[in-house]
Design a protein that fits this description.
The structure holds three protein chains of three kinds.
Chain A: H1 3-15, H2 20-25, H3 50-73, H4 75-84, H5 86-90, H6 94-101, H7 107-133, E1 147-150, E2 166-169, H8 172-181, H9 185-195, H10 204-214, E3 225-228, H11 233-246, E4 250-253, H12 264-283, H13 289-313, H14 322-336, H15 341-359, E5 371-376, H16 386-394, E6 396-401, H17 416-428, H18 440-444, H19 446-452, E7 457-463, H20 467-470, H21 473-483, E8 486-492, H22 502-516
Parallel strand pairs in A: 1-2, 3-4, 5-6, 5-7, 7-8
Chain B: H1 7-13, H2 20-27, E1 31-35, E2 50-54, H3 64-70, H4 76-87, E3 95-99, H5 103-114, E4 124-128, H6 136-158, H7 164-186, H8 197-209, H9 212-227, E5 239-245, H10 251-259, E6 262-268, H11 288-299, H12 308-324, E7 329-335, H13 339-355, E8 360-365, H14 372-391
Chain C: H1 2-32, H2 34-53
The chains are: A alpha/beta, B alpha/beta, C mainly alpha.
Chain lengths: ~525, ~400, ~60
């Protein structure tokens, strides 16, 4: 053993009592001990041992630098953005968000988690700076007319054929990602929408989108707006409001809803072609298939790596776990969609580490996993760290999440006609579309997924306002019973933490684990706690 | 006004989905074909040898079993239909043609296959993926879906004649019954109509839930009766309203509004005559099937349409009805838990009230008329405001 | 040559001091969670006050 290793070991031994995992093992505290009540503000950062603490610190610095670069690249625009948009203030909670996500992470899983997280941070900060620097509300910028506002659930890869244009998922910054970071931001916008007569029983995510629209809180840019019918009814309905408020030439890209049929694809293909024609007309540019092929190569590589990751997910030795997998795949697929090199590079690094961890037979979370779960149904956006909690509290490893199985077919990089067909299929299998809508077969596929990934448990997100998933409630329960899976419905209200709080969500799991499975928590300090005032 | 001769008979026909005329048609060997949504052209379900039956769940008071399947947080219309199916209320059906008009509807229709509530050996069901825009690509998709999942299925599963001649006959049948209903409905344009909104609602509903060939003689007789029916000496209502919204298949809802003092002069909702009773025209060079598809896509006013033209059409069509039927205001209804109409009513309320300056009232209701007291209060207040406006000369 | 070496060593020394101070400051902020405490207890309440007082162009 090297001297430094000996030294680190000695320090680790000396300071182990500050490690919350050690504390919970020895009954003297745990992950919740270092928090001020309710707030989610930690008194001090998690002590993970010398190596992991310093690694976490280095990543904190790296993310801090990304944020510094964001402000540095467009200082006035960023200041104006903070002043103008309520949702911008919520981005200040990013560090707390990252800390929450990776509580209890050590070793390989911590390294991979941070690699993935930094990819998101560097991408998001650039996007924020770009959008604010070109926001017409602040006088616009050189790229204002080259940016294309798009519905965030329309996969933007097909837009790569417009090499001089920049597709921007319109709702991502003010509504989706920010709700991950701050559970209190969207209720404000939901209230705005409801004050105009929108009932409280519609999907809260769409209500929030509508609130952002009514509250005039979208950045303003572009010359034409692409909306979509994805993923579901309420999301379609919100477009009526956005069409009026965005007030640009408007093209809804309506992909087939029941898409598991041969007849659906020619229709969806034509929809994409029409969208391309619309952009050509409104922006006066020509579609460049070679530009598309270049980015499609990246998406293909990312999907190839993703499929290899799946092989590791099937084993107990996957170092990519829980939210580190879920959030990254969701962002890299739905928002980036092959358009940023950084994600391909990250994937290469991550898969290399996963291979290494697998060869070493490395078990994440010190091998404390008791159950392997497949997560199905749309997740609560306001409780992004739920997979972290469920692992730390009950040893339930969320092996794969529904959203991670989105479009993984390869896109042709040589033949335009084939490429657009591939893109149609790829887009039809976008966020939620592959699973929660489009027919029972898509939902019912969960058991096959769970079986293939060696899961003994299925966790089903039960968005109280999701009419589609509510519509198969009993069928899912009956299937779980028949097929012998542990099955938990986790009630939530997607973006409104007031209806179903995070603690209410935890209670669904706690009840099942203690009453049905008669198990003891790994860390008793996080079974029940109040984080209602936390971001 | 003197009572309509067949009104009580019509009301009785609405007490069960499996009513007297349905039983008769089934006994005569006709294929009973169910549907829920305007996206499924009624005309195609009235090909020779078939009859359409738009599904209702009259007198449904409890949806316990359906709520077990679909939770209590879902559309009460679809839960009521599923409940009625589980109770055996649709065992006369040989097929259900569904449309993914909304997620709740689609899930309910899936249960018709997954839990086999319809005890009929011949029963089968399909669900189309309906279009969300009115353009050419969507029309072609609509045609392809209807051909694959309705027309070909009728031919292959039930041996129904789906030739152009048969389609022409179905169009003829549609136009005949639509003409009867439209003539009666147009009487509501008069200053003092010889028909009430409630009566018209009952008549329109029986035309949707009964075999056309059996209900038509009664409708013809009723039309003749209405032509000579003496209205009340003075218009008995304090205001005229257009009723807009989703599934309203309970005439008592119309009766509730009218009992508050406003006549429902136009019915633009899913079970109403706008749309459903327009004449199908065959354009030069067009086949009958194509004409049916074009017609239904054009007239469809569903709140799920996303393209600008169809969104605007929804509002311009209501505006047309307000003008043609001299409505003083509009009542927008949405079924509880309906995503589409929840949004549409917010937008429409804004457009009518603030941009078109037409008084508008929005309400949310259950399928079974439970909270009538609250609704009555809302309607009374709205009608009072219309009356005051009218007294003040529209100011 | 000696002068250059001296300068380089001096520079490296200065860089090391700056680096050490930067490390100590940032690591202290990191470990004490200082930035999050300031954001949560000071910055966001002020920003929220500002957001709550905004008059927004609310319309459909």
């Amino acid at each position: 053993m090297k001297l430094t290793d000996k030294l680190i070991k000695a320090v680790d031994k000396k300071l182990e009592r500050f490690d919350p995992l050690w504390q919970s093992e020895h009954g003297v505290g745990g992950l919740r001990s270092r928090y001020y009540d309710k707030t989610g503000v930690a008194k001090y950062r998690e002590w993970r041992g010398v190596k992991d603490t310093f690694y976490d610190y280095s990543q904190w610095l790296k993310n801090l630098m990304s944020m510094g670069m964001m402000v540095g690249s467009a200082p006035m625009a960023c200041l104006k953005g903070f002043w103008e948009y309520r949702w911008m203030g919520s981005y200040l909670g990013t560090f707390m968000f990252i800390d929450r996500l990776f509580e209890g992470y050590r070793g390989y899983e911590l390294r991979i988690a941070h690699m993935n997280m930094h990819a998101i941070v560097q991408s998001l900060t650039k996007k924020i700076a770009l959008v604010l620097a070109n926001d017409r509300r602040f006088g616009g910028g050189p790229l204002t007319d080259r940016m294309v506002p798009m519905d965030e659930v329309l996969p933007p890869l097909f837009m790569a054929g417009f090499k001089d244009l920049i597709p921007i998922p319109l709702q991502t910054l003010p509504e989706f990602i920010i709700c991950d970071i701050d559970q209190h931001i969207e209720p404000y916008y939901i209230d705005v929408a409801e004050s105009y007569g929108l009932p409280a029983d519609v999907c809260s995510r769409c209500a929030a989108e509508t609130g952002v629209t009514i509250d005039d809180a979208f950045p303003i840019f572009g010359k034409g707006f692409l909306s979509t019918n994805m993923p579901c009814n309420a999301s379609e309905a919100t477009s009526m409001f956005q069409r009026r408020r965005v007030n640009l030439p408007y093209q809804p890209v309506t992909m087939a809803m029941i898409h598991n049929e041969p007849g659906a694809h020619p229709y969806s293909t034509q929809e994409l072609k029409n969208a391309i024609a619309f952009i050509e007309k409104e922006y006066g540019v020509k579609y460049d298939w070679n530009a598309l092929f270049e980015r499609a190569k990246h998406m293909n590589e990312q999907n190839t790596i993703e499929l290899e990751k799946w092989d590791y997910f099937k084993t107990p030795y996957s170092a990519l776990v829980g939210i580190a997998e879920t959030l990254y795949r969701l962002y890299s697929w739905a928002s980036v969609n092959g358009q940023e090199d950084y994600f391909t590079k990250t994937d290469r690094k991550v898969i290399a580490l996963m291979r290494k961890a697998y060869e070493e037979k490395y078990r994440p979370f010190a091998g404390k996993t008791r159950h392997r779960a497949f997560l199905w149904g749309p997740s609560a956006v306001y409780y992004t760290d739920f997979p972290t909690w469920i692992q730390n509290c009950w040893g339930i490893n969320i092996v794969l999440n529904m959203d991670s199985t989105m479009g993984h077919n390869m896109i042709s990089t040589t033949d335009p006609e084939q490429a657009i067909k591939d893109l149609a299929l790829f887009s039809e299998k976008g966020v939620m579309r592959h699973h929660a809508v489009g027919g029972w077969d898509n939902v019912n596929a969960v058991w096959e997924w769970a079986k293939n990934f060696n899961c003994d448990m299925v966790l089903c997100n039960d968005n109280v306002a999701c009419k589609g998933m509510n519509g198969v409630h009993a069928l899912l329960e009956e299937q779980a019973r028949d097929l012998g899976f542990h099955f938990i419905f986790i009630e939530h209200d997607l973006e409104d933490s007031r209806t179903v709080s995070r603690q209410d969500m935890r209670k669904c799991v706690n009840n099942y684990m203690s009453v049905v499975l008669n198990e003891q928590p790994l860390d008793p300090t996080i079974v029940e706690f109040d984080d209602s005032a936390a971001y | 006004m003197k009572d309509l001769k067949h009104l009580i008979y019509f009301e009785n026909l609405l007490q069960e989905a499996h009513n007297e005329l349905v039983t008769k048609a089934v006994a005569e060997g006709k294929h009973a074909l169910g549907y829920n949504c305007y996206y499924i052209p009624e005309t195609l379900l009235n090909l020779p040898g078939c009859f359409s039956s738009r599904l209702r769940a009259p007198r449904c008071v409890s949806t316990d079993i359906a709520s077990y399947y679909m939770t209590t947080r879902n559309c009460p219309y679809v839960r009521s239909i599923l409940e009625r199916a589980i109770e055996g209320g649709y065992n006369y059906l040989e097929a259900l043609f569904g449309a993914e008009g909304c997620a709740a509807m689609e899930r309910m229709e899936e249960h018709f296959v997954l839990i086999h509530p319809v005890k009929n050996e011949k029963f089968f069901s399909t669900i189309i993926d309906p279009p969300m825009k009115g353009d050419e690509n969507n029309l072609n998709y609509y045609k392809a879906q209807l051909k694959l999942k309705v027309v070909d299925k009728l031919r292959d599963e039930l041996g129904v004649d789906v030739s152009d001649e048969a389609m022409l006959k179905a169009i003829e049948d549609h136009n005949e019954i639509s003409s009867l209903i439209t003539q009666m409905g147009d009487m509501r344009k008069l200053d003092n109509p010889p028909i009430t909104g409630y009566e018209f609602h009952v008549i329109q509903l029986v035309s949707q839930v009964c075999p056309h060939y059996l209900i038509k003689p009664y409708l013809e007789e009723t039309l003749e009766e209405l032509k000579t029916r003496e209205p009340e000496p003075k218009f008995p209502f304090r205001a005229r309203v257009a009723l807009v919204g989703s599934e309203i298949d309970d005439p008592d809802f119309t009766k509730l509004i009218e009992s508050c003092g406003a006549m429902v002069v136009a019915d633009r909702y899913c079970f109403g005559s706008f749309p459903s009773r327009e004449q199908i025209e065959i354009l030069p060079g067009e086949g009958p099937f194509d004409a049916i598809c074009r017609h239904y896509l054009h007239w469809n006013q569903c709140a799920r349409f996303m393209d600008g033209d169809k969104i605007d059409q929804r509002h311009s069509e209501v505006l047309r009805l307000v003008k043609d039927f001299k409505a003083d205001g509009v009542i927008y209804e949405n079924m509880k838990f309906c995503e589409f109409w929840s949004y549409e009513k917010v937008l429409a309320n804004h457009i009518f009230t603030n941009e078109l300056h037409i008084p508008c009232c929005t309400i949310e209701k259950e399928y079974a008329l439970g909270a009538a007291g609250q609704l009555r209060t809302r309607f009374q207040a709205f009608i009072e405001s219309l009356e005051i406006k009218s007294i003040q000369g529209g100011k | 040559m000696k002068k250059v070496m001296k300068f380089v060593l001096k520079l490296l020394g200065k860089l090391a001091v700056v680096g050490l101070v930067t490390f100590l400051v940032t690591f202290t902020i990191y470990m004490t969670n200082a930035e999050n405490k300031i954001i949560y207890y000071v910055v966001r309440p002020l920003l929220n006050k500002h957001y709550d007082s905004q008059v927004r162009d609310r319309r459909i």
